[in-house]
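R.M. (postdoc): so does anyone remember the format we settled on? I'll just put the structure tokens first.
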């Protein structure tokens, strides 16, 4: 769940480098495509890169020609330059993006968000939009359920969260805690800690502090909230002789099942950029066509008009389908 050039919103996020478009003809060579502007949160981020690529690639399948821009200062200024040339705009929103997009709504340009829940201020409270992405609480609950099958009765675990104060950190933690409380009350969460930044070394340091405090064998698993955190713990587990037969590591936002395949990680949640991209494009198609009443919006969601995108649970049974080499071959 990263903020352009300055802050990392560590949910998973983004797209391809360079402004790109999907062409000018419809998928069947017939009608002219509607024009969709897309603003990525950060082309430097791996997931953002793959999400951007997928939106550009699949746009014509939904009758949309995509012009993709990076969320740098120049990118944000550039998108206002073709305010009158697009039918809709889709964004991975930074803090101030919803405010900026009010001018698009005033020009009858349809506004959508993807992957990062928009932070709506007083200036953008009248913005009419739809959102496609994952529910943070649902992600946390899915992780808890995925780890549960590997955790023994009375297991003790620790949780490493994204930076304190981020909505995705709080939502993922609440979802995990609520699922365990309702379904596995025997499991004890010994400690919850937050990284200052989403970096592997910081998660590794927290994990090694827990090892010093509780000892190897003193707790049975760790839940993480990002692939960077998982990476740090994987490195420490290997040095300590821990693997997925004697320690249950579960994470969120893996880019592949490689750590599961090698026998270190127990499970992870894979955020599929193609699924998120096509869900967002379908949403934008309905917005352009004025048929949003046909969309299925999530109840009790963190924002209005929320189209949920589920994550895929990676585990031993399906790990061969999601290795780096298998995904590269798709």
């Amino acid at each position: 769940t990263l903020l352009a050039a300055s802050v990392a919103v560590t949910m998973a996020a983004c797209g391809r480098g360079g402004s790109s478009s999907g062409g000018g003809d419809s998928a069947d060579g017939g009608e002219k495509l509607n024009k969709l502007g897309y603003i990525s949160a950060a082309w430097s981020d791996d997931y953002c890169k793959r999400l951007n690529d997928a939106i550009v690639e699949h746009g014509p399948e939904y009758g949309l020609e995509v012009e993709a821009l990076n969320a740098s200062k120049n990118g944000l200024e550039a998108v206002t330059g073709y305010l009158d040339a697009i039918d809709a705009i889709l964004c991975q929103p930074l803090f101030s993006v919803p405010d900026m997009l009010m001018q698009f709504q005033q020009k009858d340009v349809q506004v959508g968000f993807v992957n990062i829940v928009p932070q709506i201020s007083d200036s953008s409270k009248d913005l009419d939009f739809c959102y496609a992405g994952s529910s943070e609480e649902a992600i946390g609950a899915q992780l808890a359920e995925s780890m549960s099958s590997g955790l023994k009765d009375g297991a003790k675990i620790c949780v490493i969260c994204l930076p304190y104060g981020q909505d995705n950190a709080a939502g993922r933690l609440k979802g995990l805690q609520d699922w365990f409380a309702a379904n596995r009350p025997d499991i004890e969460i010994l400690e919850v800690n937050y990284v200052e930044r989403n970096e592997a070394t910081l998660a590794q340091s927290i994990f090694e502090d827990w090892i010093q405090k509780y000892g190897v064998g003193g707790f049975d698993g760790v839940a993480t909230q990002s692939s960077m955190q998982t990476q740090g713990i994987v490195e420490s587990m290997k040095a300590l002789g821990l693997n997925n037969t004697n320690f249950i590591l579960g994470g969120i936002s893996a880019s592949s099942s490689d750590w599961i395949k090698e026998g270190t990680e127990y499970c992870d949640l894979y955020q599929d950029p193609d699924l998120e991209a096509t869900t967002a494009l379908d949403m934008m198609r309905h917005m352009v066509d004025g048929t949003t009443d046909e969309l299925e919006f999530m109840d009790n969601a963190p924002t209005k008009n929320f189209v949920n995108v589920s994550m895929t649970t990676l585990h031993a049974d399906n790990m061969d389908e999601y290795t780096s080499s298998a995904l590269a071959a798709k």
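R.M.: ...and that's the designed sequence above, right after the tokens. Also worth knowing: The first helix runs from residue 46 to 58. The CA atoms of residues 38 and 234 lie 35 Å apart.
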